[in-house]
Amino acid sequence: MSLEATLPGLDPAMEKEFNPWLAAEARFNEAATLLGLDDGFQKVLKSPAMEVTVHIPVELEDGRLEVFTGYRVQHSIARGPAKGGIRFAPDVTLDEVRALASWMTWKCAVVNIPFGGGKGGVICDPTLLSKNELERITRRYTAALMDVIGPERDVPAPDMNTNEQTMAWIMDTYSMHKRSTVTAVVTGKPLNLGGSRGRVEATGRGCLFVTLQALKKFGLEPSETKIVVQGFGNVGGKAAKLMHQAGMKIIAVVEWDGAVYNPKGIDPEALQKHRQETGSITGYAEAEDMDRFEAMFLPCDVLVPAAKENVIHSKNAAKIQAKIICEGANGPTTAEADQILDEKRIFVIPDILANAGGVTVSYFEWVQDRMGYFWNEEMVNSRLEEIMVNSFQDVVAYGERHKVHNRSAAYMVALDRVAFAIKLRGIYA
Ligand code: NAD
User: Fold this and answer.
1) 362 lines ligand 1 (CB under 6 A)
2) What are the residue numbers of the active site?
3) Which residue's CA is the nearest one to ligand 1's atom 2?
4) Tens-place pLDDT, residues 184-195
5) What value does the mean pLDDT take over residues 359-381?
6) Per-residue pLDDT tens for 107-158?
7) Cβ(188) – ligand 1 distance below 6 Å
8) What domains does the chain contain, in order, with CATH numbers?
9) Does this model's pTM top 0.85?
10) CB of 308 shorter than 6 A to ligand 1
11) Ligand 1 center to 277 CA (angstroms)
12) Measuring from atom 33 of ligand 1, which residue has the nearest CA?
């Protein structure tokens, strides 16, 4: 779907504003400058530790041979093994993978888990490939990366168009070469192959935990809180369900094809059922349909953008009437919009903190695999809560101390942790 289709009136001059890599760089530069990091050190922090390109021959169903190109970038291994997903998409580029890998470094650092950042991708169109072809691509890509990935080196996970089946194939291929079962080489595996309980809901649950903390700062009780959720998928759907269970009122849900509104609150599980039956959230009997471009600007306490990047930008940020924004999606707010939200004194829980519940439970999966001892869901959720609450408090306290907004504070906390690790380790010569 093009940006034009999702953002009405997109001006081509805003292309720069919508470039997520420029946005990530702007945030890095701001945080590095505020921290007073010198140029040399900034170079070290910015540069990926390793970039690998592989060209993998695969036999297709019709007997033809095709060569696919795959990447794996380890942006940082200063605090532990690289961690980050693998995506399959026709438009994957090394630049994109590189930027996403650095994003993972900051995300892992902000929640203080002992991982660096990585990302991988294979240029392919999964809609044109059979399951067997996808399996062959995955296995050959894994075999090519045998010396790159590993529980102590680099731990991939699912991302766009990859899933727990993909992770099971990676785990199996890696294990075949190692001559022993190495479950901790990837996370996001099926539960009975070393996956973790609580992983599916982890990102949405993390959003709940940080939102509860933000509500406390505003002196708001969950029962008097009105929520608008954009994107009713894995993150937004689960966040909505859990927030509803915590007593909050989901007054609107926004999807790509429409929005529904009920000031008395919507039951997300019933709405999900309606969507499964009809293919859309619209036409739901317990709520009114409304314009999806207006729903995001309803007066509410918390807006949860959990669909995609760049939905809050310089042309619409002023219309937002939420007190708190909990960024379930990656990069939903442009750097230009940050300034407007800041002027409006909207309390933003930035993506690298708000949606880090997923990678945190991936970390728990890796820990459980290495122990060979698995936790019940209660244990996973309570440990997730502890990490999300502590990280929220670290970021907010840092922001208050240094008089910067939460996003800058989150980047500063993250950069500071990675920089400190590099300084302690020293520059090996
Ligand atoms: P998903 O595909 O399960 O859900 C996305 C939902 O948003 C879908 O229902 C889709 O129809 C909807 N959508 C797409 N465009 C929209 C638009 N313009 N307006 C309204 N709704 C729209 O994806 P997901 O896993 O929930 O991921 C959502 C975001 O969260 C992405 O930015 C992703 O990178 C980020 N994220 C996901 C995880 C995770 O664990 N899944 C972790 C961290 C960050």
Assistant:
1) no
2) 119
3) 233
4) 999 999 999 999
5) 98
6) 999 999 999 999 999 999 999 999 999 999 999 999 999 999 999 999 999 9
7) no
8) 50-193 (3.40.50.10860), 202-354 (3.40.50.720)
9) yes
10) yes
11) 20
12) 329
